[in-house]
Design a protein that fits this description.
Its main location: periplasm. One of its GO terms (cellular component) is periplasmic space. There is one protein chain. The chain is α/β, with parallel strands linked by helices. It has 17 helices and 17 strands. The chain has two domains: 190 residues, Periplasmic binding protein-like II (D-Maltodextrin-Binding Protein, domain 2, 3-Layer(aba) Sandwich), CATH 3.40.190.10; 226 residues, Periplasmic binding protein-like II (D-Maltodextrin-Binding Protein, domain 2). It is 40% helix and 17% strand. The relative contact order is 0.17.
Length: 453
């Protein structure tokens, strides 16, 4: 229930009249996080650090505030559906875990409000803004207004199983692919050396949702000097880059069977790809840094034993040197997840106080002890994590971001359908691109699309 506010009448001992009412506030937080399950470290941080710290801070200022974490064990898409229902009916938690790319569509539907409109001037007076760049603010913004705060950002790369490379006679430490051909050549050698392996995993299909768009399609299409939009802000609906990307998928999953094709089509396919890597069936997996800091971390479901000896990482190459987005040799993309306020909260000022406290230097430094990652605040470092320090330094200068557009979610869904049509063998790359062109044109209007030659 949204910020249930209860009023307690406190009787003074020996007095015949009641004292002035004192208010106690109940707040709740929800996120896709379950202690001992998905995003366990986040759940632990909220329950063990954020909640007791916030309640103590409020108590010391004379306020009675109780905070509850509502753990959500479903998939990202299921949480999004639940939040859309909650926000439209006045239900749900006060503070909600949220992916920044969803903000435009929720705003257009009237399901989110800017932080300062909801919680007042305290939002703009928050000390944290001085430590968050304007670019980082945009991860949870739309149309010039801020709707939430991202806990951090991320980068994407190729994760490597060194033992499988060794079996194929490739030195994983010195190997750095500079083209798609290099990726395919390595995959072929590994497949020959380990016939029952699925050497290369790059996400495709509908069941993987946004992971297909970000970890799969984007990492390829950026390498073909393209993206979802052109420099004029029009959606690219057909291009040589899109066709090259789809043909790469076809080579990997159909023509040469270098990847686990079934995993792209199953409901639990993404977890299957994690298991494939853990179990030594996949040698190259294109994923975000979350794969290191959470998926393969000690104690996780897909923990990789002896991880730092068995696993390394490589930059994702463009199709060929210089052929990538903005003429780059290597590409990556970043997103941002964080928290927003329920537009129907009964206690907007207190909910903002909680959100601000979660993003204080003190609490983000505490979070780093649970899960070190790239934080938005420039006064919060990455402790004891050579991996994250190295990858962020190497990849952030190369990164770009998803379009901040209300139609993005719908277009992303069409990307997922397009890749699935190819990987399933239902359509040729040319046919799938034509279907994508028709679908996106219907979504955004022909005047907002472009076909490149």
């Amino acid at each position: 229930m949204v910020g249930r506010l209860r009023t307690l009448m406190i009787a003074l001992a020996g007095a015949s009249a009641m004292a002035a009412p004192a208010f106690a506030t109940d707040l709740s937080i929800t996120c896709r996080c379950v202690e001992g399950g998905a995003n366990s470290q986040m759940a632990e941080w909220i329950k063990q650090s954020v909640i007791p710290g916030f309640e103590k801070m409020k108590s010391e200022s004379g306020e009675d505030v109780t905070v509850t974490l509502k753990e959500f064990a479903g998939q990202d898409e299921q949480l999004t559906q639940q939040q859309a229902l909650d926000f439209s009916t006045g239900a749900g938690a006060d503070v909600n875990g949220f992916d920044g790319f969803l903000i435009p569509s929720f705003v257009e539907a009237g399901l989110l409000k800017p932080l300062d409109e909801l919680a007042g001037p305290a939002v703009n007076e928050w000390e944290g803004w001085d430590h968050i760049s304007d670019g980082s603010k945009q991860l949870m913004s739309f149309d010039g207004k801020v709707y939430g705060i991202a806990l951090g950002t991320d980068v994407r790369m190729i994760f490597i199983r060194k033992d499988l490379f060794e079996q194929a006679g490739i030195d994983a430490d010195s190997w750095q692919p500079t083209s798609w051909d290099d990726l395919l050549d390595a995959a072929r050698k590994i497949k020959e050396a380990v016939p029952d392996s699925s050497p290369l995993q790059i996400n495709a299909g509908v069941s993987m949702g946004e992971a297909t768009t970000m970890q799969g399609y984007y990492m390829l299409v950026l390498g073909a000097d393209s993206g979802l939009k052109d420099e004029n802000g029009k959606w690219i609906v057909s291009s040589p880059g899109i066709l090259d990307t789809l043909n790469f998928y076809k080579t990997v999953y159909l023509d040469e069977e270098l990847g686990d094709r079934r995993a792209q089509l199953l409901g639990d396919g993404r977890n299957r790809t994690f298991a494939n890597f853990r179990d030594g069936k996949t040698a190259m997996l294109v994923e975000g840094d979350w794969f290191y800091r959470a998926v393969t971390a000690p104690g996780s479901e897909f923990e990789l034993k002896d991880r730092d000896n068995l696993m390394t990482w490589k930059k994702m190459p463009a199709r060929e040197p210089g052929a990538g987005f903005s003429g780059q040799d290597f590409v990556t993309i970043s997103g941002g997840t964080g928290f927003v306020l329920n537009p129907n909260t009964d206690a907007p000022e207190e909910a903002w106080d909680l959100l601000a406290y979660m993003n204080s230097k003190e609490q983000l430094e505490a979070f780093q002890t649970y899960q070190a990652r790239i934080r938005l605040r420039d006064d919060v470092g990455i402790p004891d994590s050579p991996f994250l320090s190295e990858t962020s330094q190497e990849l952030l200068p190369l990164t770009t971001a998803r379009p901040n557009d209300a139609d993005y979610n719908k277009v992303s869904a069409e990307v997922q359908r397009m890749t699935e049509a190819v990987v399933s063998g239902e359509m040729s790359p040319e046919e799938a691109m034509e279907q994508y062109k028709a679908a996106v044109t219907e979504i955004v209007g022909a005047e907002n699309t472009v076909s490149l030659q």
